[in-house]
Structures are given as C-alpha cells and as structure tokens.
C-alpha cells in the first residue's frame, strides 16, 4: 500500500507571535510512504526536488537514514499503538525551500505522520497528530497550520496537548514572501536567543499579540502596524539576516506597507501590505539585497486555508 500527503509551507511568528502564530502558504511538499514488498529492507528515504521552484535544495538536509525527522515522527506514531515501523519507503517531493523559515521541516514531519496514520488505519486523531508533530518539531507554530491550514494562534500546553484557534486573514492584506538564496538553520537561529528577556520586552510582545488578534478581526491597519513589531526574537536574529535592518528601514517609508517581519526563524522576510505598489515594494527588497550580492525569490501569495491532505499520486 502507498499513501501520499500534500503539505503546505508555513510562515511562523508573524511579528509578535513568537512560537505561537503561524499561517499556511500555497507552496507544497508531497510525502509518500510505501510499504515495501520485501521484508528486511528497513526504512529508505528519498528526496526529489522541484527544480522549477528551488534549484539549490540540498539533499543532505533530510538525512537518508532512520535519524531523519520524518522517521522520528513516523516511529512515534507506530510506538503510540505499540508497533515499530519497518519496510517503509518514504519519498519527499520538495517544493518548499529548505532552511529558509518556510516550514520545510514541519511539512515533512506532518506529511510523514499523516501518511503513516493512513497506512495504519487512522489510529491517531488530530489532537494526537498535533502533539506528536510538535514533540518532534519543538514548537507548534509551523506544524499546526501545516495540519489544519489557515492562520492559527497555537499553544503547546504543559500536558503535551496542542490547543489552537483559527483567525481569518483579511483578503485586503497581501503577503509577500522574500526568500534569499542562502540558508539559516532554525537551530542556529534559536541558539542566538537569550534564556531570559527583560520584563518590558515580554509586556511589549504580550500587548502586540493581543493587538494582532484584534487587528485581523477588525481589519484595522493602524493596529496591524503595531502588531507586527517584536522584541522577543527579531532583535537577536537581525545579525543573522544581512540586509533585514536596511529593508525594514526603507519599507517604513512606504505607506502601503503595514509591516516587515522575519518568516519563522528567517532568513526569509514576510511583508504585509495593501494591494497597491507591490512591484515597488518587491524592488526595494530585491535591490537592497542585490547591493549585498544576495539573490532572492520574491512572491506574493494568498493564505492556504486547507491543511495537509491525502492525494492520489
Ligand atoms: N517559532 C520558531 C522560531 C519558528 O522562530 O524559532 C521556526 O520555524
């Protein structure tokens, strides 16, 4: 038997929502799990890159062995019903750029889990899948929208459960994702964060997360301009994304831009704007990075409201 799952990319944090806000985007990885006919072949993982979208993806990011995060997720699911995985062939058709802050690792975790769950006759419900995916990923803000789609506020609770609520992203606001031609691993981007933050910075972000929820509910541009500010992760990560400071400063003078944030842990940048002057906004990013010899793919994408789904390959 063979099952394929198509999983969307995700942008996490979205300003003040460090580790708790995330949104699905219409770029996809498709993960296929096949039970092999010959016993004793173990688990084999292959990655096929979609050259049309990202020509420079590197296979070694998804280790071809049982240490892979896909394998870990699949193994946890099997273990949860008292079984162990064996004789599986896992294939990843990859369209989501790796290590760019677009949820590529979350997508393979989620795809592996959902495919294995289907093969096993669906022993795990959404709650269980979210828990396992978050345990493997370490935070819920990519895996939750990857599973359920849309824009979510999500929390990994102390008892291991994920609690989430969906928010409606206003259609009037554009999401422009700027993907530089270099990678930044989430491990490195998390290693620069302090263990403790000043109380005033925690208060700053708490206020802004509240503003974010109200801003999307009321489609309030002024509130959104404030909501997209952050003091918990971006100031520390700024040095890992050359040009982010210049791009942020230039975009402050564009009245159609509501904000400019790191996508997840970076290095991609997410710009929230009105629909006007998109070419001008994109050119500002392109030219600023070009001056620093950084090439970029820049695209305006809608929200993907559908999460991971089983597909017929
Ligand atoms: N919230 C996570 C972080 C997202 O910023 O480290 C990683 O994709």
Q: Characteristics of this structure?
A:
single chain, 313 residues, alpha+beta, Ribosomal Protein S5, domain 2, Alpha-Beta Plaits, 2 domains, seven-stranded mixed β-sheet, four-stranded antiparallel β-sheet, globular, binds L-homoserine
Q: Can you walk me through this structure?
A:
The chain starts with a strand and ends with a strand. The longest helix is centred in the middle third of the chain and has 20 residues, at 199-218. Strands 1, 2, 3, 4, 5, 6 and 11 form a seven-stranded mixed β-sheet that branches. The protein has a four-stranded antiparallel β-sheet with strand order 8-9-7-10. With 313 residues, the protein is an alpha+beta fold. The protein has helices at residues 69-80, 104-119, 126-137, 140-148, 186-191, 199-218, 221-227, 234-237, 244-251, 278-291, and strands spanning 2-12, 21-35, 43-49, 88-94, 151-156, 162-167, 174-180, 257-262, 269-273, 296-301, 309-311. The chain has ten helices and eleven strands. Helix 1 (69-80) crosses helix 3, helix 2 crosses helix 3 (126-137) and helix 2 (104-119) crosses helix 4 (140-148). The model is unreliable at 51-64 (pLDDT under 50). Strand 5 and strand 6 (162-167) form a beta hairpin. The relative contact order is 0.19. The chain has two domains: 2-168 and 303-311, Ribosomal Protein S5, domain 2; 174-301, GHMP kinase, C-terminal domain (Alpha-Beta Plaits, 2-Layer Sandwich), CATH 3.30.70.890. The protein binds L-homoserine. Residues 12-13, 18-19, 101, 139, 141-142, 186, 189-190, 233, 264-265 line the site of L-homoserine.
């Amino acid at each position: 038997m063979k099952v394929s799952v198509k999983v969307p990319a995700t942008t996490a944090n979205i300003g003040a929502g460090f580790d708790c806000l995330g949104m699905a985007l219409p770029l996809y990885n498709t993960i296929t799990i096949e039970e092999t006919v010959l016993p004793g072949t173990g688990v084999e993982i292959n990655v096929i890159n979609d050259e049309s979208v990202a020509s420079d993806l590197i296979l070694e990011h998804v280790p071809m062995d049982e240490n892979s995060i896909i394998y870990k997720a699949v193994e946890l699911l099997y273990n949860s019903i008292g079984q162990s995985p064996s004789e599986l062939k896992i294939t990843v058709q990859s369209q989501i750029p790796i290590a760019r802050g677009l949820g590529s690792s979350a997508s393979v975790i989620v795809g592996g889990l959902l495919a294995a769950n289907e093969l096993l006759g669906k022993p795990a419900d959404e709650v269980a899948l979210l828990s396992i995916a978050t345990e493997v990923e370490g935070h819920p803000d990519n895996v939750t929208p990857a599973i359920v789609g849309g824009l979510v506020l999500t929390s990994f609770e102390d008892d291991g459960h994920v609690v989430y609520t969906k928010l409606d992203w206003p259609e009037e606001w554009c999401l422009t994702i700027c993907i530089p031609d270099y990678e930044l691993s989430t491990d490195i981007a998390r290693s620069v964060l302090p263990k403790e933050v000043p109380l005033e910075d925690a208060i700053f972000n708490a206020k802004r997360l509240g503003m974010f929820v109200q801003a999307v509910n009321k489609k309030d541009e002024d509130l959104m301009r404030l909501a997209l500010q952050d003091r918990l992760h971006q100031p520390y990560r700024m040095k890992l994304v050359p040009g982010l400071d210049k791009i942020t400063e230039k975009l402050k003078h564009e009245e159609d831009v509501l904000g400019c944030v790191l996508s997840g842990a970076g290095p991609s940048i997410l710009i929230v704007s009105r629909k006007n002057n998109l070419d001008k906004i994109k050119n500002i990013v392109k030219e600023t990075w070009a001056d620093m010899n950084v090439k970029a793919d820049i695209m305006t994408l809608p929200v993907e409201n559908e999460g991971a789904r089983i597909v017929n390959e």
